[in-house]
Amino acid sequence: MGTRYYLLRGLLAVPTGLIFLAAGLTNTPPIGDEPVSGSAPWFVLALGVAAVGYYVVNRYYVTTFGRVEPSRRTLVRIAVLTLACAAIMCVGITLDIQLDLPVSLFGAAFGVALLFYYRLLNVLRPYHLVLLGGLTVLALAPIWGGLDDKVSPVMIPIGLVTIVIGLLDHRDLLASLRRARSARVDEDADGRP
Question: Which regions span the lipid bilayer (predicted)?
Fold first, then answer.
């Protein structure tokens, strides 16, 4: 249950989604040789709001459910998979910048990498398949060609998907904790240890 709790603290994804949304809407941070956008102060403000959000959400989880840490082996596995996902996404961004393809490889890489992440950590749910699969299909739709910047526009659906998945992960976490608590109550009522 500790690993599941750790991975499904979905409200922590909401500030991350906000950062993606802000990056997409403000075209910040600059990618490649782009000049800094005039909207950069709004992006910096969004980063500040996200930082406060991370703190508040983390405090909520700690004060409501306590501090739960998975085993060291699980933490290493999570770290390795997170770095692998980040590398795959970086390749997608780089290819989007270098090539003028009609698709968004960054968006597709994001969707596919997170599907594998959730699957390899044994927390893949149907809503992950629908949302990340839908994002991947959208990213592979031939609507992204001809844009000067394909990376910023795809960050908008990435941000929205990240927020929705975070909210659904949190809902799943609460349901899992209720089931675990109910099973414990049933054991106590039956006189079993």
Answer: 42-62, 74-95, 101-120, 127-145, 151-168
Domain, as residue range, for 40: 2-184
pLDDT the model gives residue 3 = 73
Copy the structure tokens of residue 184: 């414990």
pLDDT (tens digit, 9 = 90+) per residue, 91-122?
999 999 888 899 999 999 999 999 999 999 99
Number of H helices, E strands in the chain: 7, 0
Bond into 29 cis (ω within 30): yes
Look up residue 160 and give its two tokens.
């929205």
- Answer whether 142's CB lies under 8 Å from 98's CB: no
d(Cα 175, Cα 132) in Å, to the nearest integer? Answer: 22
Could you give the number of structural domains in the chain?
1
Rounded Cα gap, residues 10 and 167, in angstroms: 6
Closest to 137 measured CA to CA, from 152, 154, 121: 154
Examine residue 191 and state whether it is found in any structural domain, yes or no. Answer: no
In the 8-state DSSP scheme, what is residue 101? -
Tell me: pLDDT of 188 over 70: no
Instruction: Tell me phi and psi for residue 176, to 5 degrees.
Output: -65, -40
- Is 190 a domain residue? no
Q: Identify the residue whose tokens are 């961004």.
A: 93
Place of tokens 């659904």: 168
